[in-house]
Amino acid sequence: MRAFVVSLLAAAAAPTAAFRVSPVGRGQARRGPTQRAFRARTSIRTNPLWVREAQRVPYTQDDGRVDERGIYEGRAFDTSERDGCGVGFIAQPENAGEANHDVMKKALNALGCMEHRGACSSDGISGDGAGVLTDIPWSLLEDEIPEVKDARSNGRAIAMGMVFFSKNEEERAEGKKLAEETALIAGLKVVAWREVPVDESILGEASAATVPFIEQMFVEGPGLDAAQFKRASYIFRRQIRGAADFKGLGPDSLYICSLGEKTVTYKGMVNSYSLGTFYKDLVDPRFKCRFAIYHRRFSTNTTPKWPLAQPMRMLGHNGEINTLLGNVNWMRARSAAQDSCDISQLLDSDNNVFQNCDTSFIDGMGSLVDTTRSDSANMDSIFELYSKSGRPMAEALRFMVPEAYENGRVGADPTSPDFEMEKDVVGFYDFHAPLQEAWDGPALICFSDGDILGATLDRNGLRPARYTRLKDGTVYLMSETGVVPLDDGDVVEKGRLGPGQMINVDLKTGEFKSNQDIRKMIAKSQPWRELVENTQFALKFDKFGDAYNVIDSDEEATRSTTVIRNQVAFGWGVEDLTMMVSAMASTGGEATFSMGDDAPLAVLSDRPHVLYDYFRQRFAQVTNPPIDPLREGEVMSLKMFLGPRGHVLNDVDDASTTRLVSISSPVLNGPELTQLKSKFGADGVSPATAETMSTRFDSSAGAGGLEAAVKALADKVCERVRDGVGLVVLSDLAPLDGSDAMKDIAAGTTRGLGPNEAYIPPLAAVGAVHHALIEQGLRMRCSLVVETGQCWTTHHVACLVGYGASAVHPWLAFDAVREWLNLKGTKMAISKGTLPADLDDEKALANFRNAMDKGVLKILSKMGISLLSTYQGAQIFEALGIGGELLDLSFKGTPTRVGGLNTEELGNELFTFLDRAYPKPPEGEEAVAPKKLNEDGFVKVSNKLEHHSNSPQLAKQLHKSIRHKDSDMYKEWSNSLRNRPITALRDLLEIGPDGSREPIPLDEVESVDEIMKRFVTGGMSLGALSRECHETIALAVNRIGGKSNSGEGGEDKVRDLPLPKGDTDANGVSSTLPHLKLGGLKDGDSASSKIKQIASGRFGVTPAYLANADQLEIKVAQGAKPGEGGQLPGPKVSGYIAEVRGAVEGVTLISPPPHHDIYSIED
For residue 161, what is the enclosing H or E element? Predict the structure, then answer.
């Protein structure tokens, strides 16, 4: 039971009404008052506990946006920044002729054709960003800068930096002074500055308001050889960023677009056809180059900025990195695997310094990854470091964005002439997989360091990339063909990049490498297969066996009582077993439910919920489609690696000392967990040890003791990892040290929680430990496995992995499956043939795990993620009802739009479950164990249980009021809605008192008829709705001049035309639509939906269907099941529905998540 005080912005209300929020009393929790406050927008003064501290957490730096309420809204890139861009390149290598201005002219022309790929401000001129990455125009610069001409004519190395300064003269002077002083520290000297000629008159209002002062900086390195100068220039650029941050000069005041000897980036917040007009250099005939990467940016739901325009320093990226938060966190964790070096060591060392020294977060240098940057900027930063460390660009991008080599896609055909080479390529990917998680998401990447120019696609190939090669060696690659006019007689090859493919061009020799050429190069670079054989060891699947995980030491207790008591203690309900686990165990798949959830949010419910219910999975949207796990499952993988590991930049010989265990499913059974632990220690394959750490704590500490227990667990894990533990099993099956249950362990039996024990919710435990290990620089030294009784759905597994776990042993779920098989009802269903006859323990448990695996793949696919290893730690969730205190304890970096549950309140919910399992008996009586699971009614409507907005009682009231035109019944129905329990956040809003706002004169308000013309129904397909309901909705909405939406199921052609004259009788019954027996129709009525929907299944989509639409709607995501497709169970596919949909009666219809062809702008 709870109490709430909620404050929301009045501005969220409609213009004609004021809203206020009233306190809603909820009583008190049994173990103490639970006071929750949803503080929205204006409540920072009333709840300072929710205000995140101003100082930066050392390892997270910028944890994201905290609004004026003190509510953490998450990092911008994590919650709102997404790109969908146009990118391409033109290359005319030296062997094809001297550098010339024609290359830039063609690049600008091609960029101008990319305007549809970008976004434009409301001023009609300002763009999200456009730019080119190209050769430094030395011929132009030598004409204008004497210092440049002197250096180059005398053979001295010189680098150029493109710098955005503040328009404020004092800040600009401070920035230039800072750069010159920092250069001296790096052993360099700034020899000249050049103001870049620009035409600001062409800028729109938004661009002009933030336009920087743009200068070019020229740097020499007296006494440095070529390699030292290159390294010093890189360190110098990052030193400037660190010094600028210290001085309070952010990227808006000082930002270096590029700094190097070979390439320069011209970019800005302009549209594609204005770049050459803004930057006068680009149209100067003296601007000569061999190549140009061009880019037009489309940024969704975020404010464009000059520094975020692309290309970056080494690449131009079209796509989204869906795993960015995980990539950033793992990069920080990985930095601890390298030596700590100061800047002087970096400058004085040899060229291997970046392999051995951590450069991610050195004092005095800008951080390698930064949550204020975009996904593309962070990827560019990592890619640049890997390139500077000596890894070939092709290799670096190949392990950052690997092709889909799993599931036999590469190296599986022994008859192929490239079989051995492909096996070596697989070895390369396998070797790097545990050292560098993939930067996962749709991506077309063009890249260059000034010597090599190339492009690659992600493993799904969800971005178009077509290339053309000419006889003279010129190469064009672009998002769309035709942007540069070409003579077909000059073409020697046209092609396209397929999923995971790469090409590159040597800008000096003109050598063109195909994807297969690059594979061969990578395969030969190291004995990858041998390295993998020596460093990675697969865990074998083992039988589940028939032994229960928990055997109560009390001889009087029955097995079923033991299982039930444990289920109650861990928050299980009847529906969890009968509707979820039973379906998974019997079919090998998740249960099919209807869309939507009409029960109260967990934070608004009167009933206790498990912690997972407070987290919502985020999903792919806008420019980023989900993956179809049915048709595209072969590009997905659940493979995970466990054990300590090094840094991907360490020498191969150092990295080869790593010993890792691989698993092909995140769900382990008991024998497999035992086998896994045996792989660690003196007798295992890894020298690191394995240790099980109990997550139980003494229940006498009460709900308030949960926080201390979590912190103590995190401290203990960090201590043991320092001592050499490489596999930590966080277990609520393991008893507290020194408890009586230790004797049971020694005897080979284990009991569940005792009456004096509590447990840390596993999600809170793994999240807190994961972040504590990152903070302490220990995360790469160990892997986390969660052994818990509180995990029985795919969402639970996804949460645990998303917050750091490598694997899960859901011990109580396995016991529950075994016990379900022993129920009389289950045995009867098997005997009657309702359930498979061969459904024994082993089959049911294997089904359950298979359902878990398929469900986790579906969850990954909703976010456009292919690999579980990249989902791990990525925290792709939004908290709904979790307060700042609990977020800081276990879920750092998780966005939330409202506050909510604190740690003690979570403890109250936990102890509610424990009290159900061990109820306090009346005085003088013995405690009685629960005989059955608690029934909460979270899924099914049931009297006196959880409230549901769409209850049968409400439906009956509405039907009766309509059929009988009963106004009293309608009022009863209306009052039932008004007085329902709090279910959604909007229920906390109330219309304010009269006079709180000035009323609008009625003569200024549109008529009802005009307003109703804008009414549009939601898209509900034929089949989801009955034929009668589907047609009646269309008829009604058409009468008022609105638009009904067909949904994705097609429409009967009989509905195409209005009812003809004489079609209806005196009772309003139509001969065209005789099944609408209630009548009320009239000649001229139309049952045709004006909005016709197209989904990836194309059910019922015909030329006639499309021709009879006023508006076409392409279905990108389904609101009730975001990131998933539609599904119509077989029993609902009648003969009529099958005919309309072009399907087969009785066969389930699945319209998977939309593939690239459905949403793509190219279509």
Answer: strand 158-165
Residue pair 11/43 in contact by the 8 Å Cβ criterion: no
Contact 1101, 1143 (CB under 8 A): no
- Starting at the edge strand found earlier in the chain, the sheet holding 783-787 runs 689-694, 725-731, 783-787, 807-809
pLDDT tens figures, 1096-1131: 778 899 999 999 999 998 876 555 555 566 778 888
CA dist 720 to 238, 428, 716, 753, 781, Å?
A: 36, 32, 6, 25, 11
DSSP element (H, E) containing 346: helix 343-348
Which H or E run contains 319? strand 315-319
* Low-confidence residues of the chain: pLDDT under 50: 1-65, 68-73, 75-83, 301, 553, 555-556, 740-743, 745-748, 1156-1163
- 697, 712, 735, 753, 754 from 739: Cα distances, Å: 11, 18, 7, 11, 10
Q: Are 791 and 808 in contact (CB under 8 A)?
A: yes
Helices 169-185 and 226-247 sit at what angle, rounded to 10 degrees? 140
Query: What is the pLDDT, as a whole number, of residue 37?
Result: 35
pLDDT at residue number 545: 83
Of 399, 390, 407, nearest to 432 by C-alpha is 399
Helix (H) / strand (E) element for 886: namely helix 884-890
Instruction: Give the bridge partners for 420, in sequence order.
Output: none
Which tokens is 371 given?
């949550």
Residue with tokens 């493109």: 162
SS3 assignment, position 1018: coil
**Predicted TM-score (pTM) of this structure:** 0.88
- Computed from CA positions of residues 220, 221, 223, 228, in that sequence, does the dihedral angle turn out positive or negative? negative
Number of H helices, E strands in the chain: 38, 41
User: CB neighbours (10 Å) of residue 137?
Assistant: 22
* Measured CA angle at 725 (ends 642, 729), to 5 deg: 60
How much is the CA Rg of the chain, to the nearest whole Å?
A: 32
Catalytic residue numbers read 85
d(CA 603, CA 914): 19
Cα dihedral 1093, 1095, 1099, 1102, rounded to 10, equals 60
Are 1135 and 1145 a contacting pair, CB within 8 Å? yes
Q: Residue 715 in contact with residue 690, Cβ under 8 Å?
A: no
Q: Which residues pair with 296 in a beta bridge?
A: 86, 130
Instruction: Identify the CA nearest to 679 among candidates 856, 542, 529.
Output: 542
* C-alpha triplet 710, 715, 716: angle, nearest 5°: 100
1073 vs 1077: CA distance, rounded Å = 9
How many Å apart are CA 432 and CA 328, to the nearest integer?
17
pLDDT given at position 623: 55
| Residue 399 and residue 528 in contact, taking contact as beta carbons nearer than 8 Å | no
Please name the residue that has the structure tokens 């022309």.
109
Residues 6+ apart with CB under 8 A from 863: 322, 617, 618, 619, 620, 626, 871, 876, 1123
Q: What's residue 745's pLDDT?
A: 47
* Separation between Cα atoms, residue 34 and residue 595, nearest integer Å: 32
Relative to beta strand 3-7, strand 35-39 is parallel
- Separation of alpha carbons 727 and 722, rounded Å: 12
- Using DSSP's 3-state secondary structure scheme, residue 503 falls into strand
User: DSSP per residue over 1040-1085, as a string?
Assistant: TT-B-B-TTS---GGGSSPPPTT-B-TT--BSSSTT-TT----TT-
Query: Which residues make beta-bridge pairs with 57?
Result: 61
pLDDT of residue 651: 60
Cβ(859)–Cβ(795) under 8 Å? yes
Residue 165 buriedness (CB in 10 A; 0-12 / 13-18 / 19+): buried
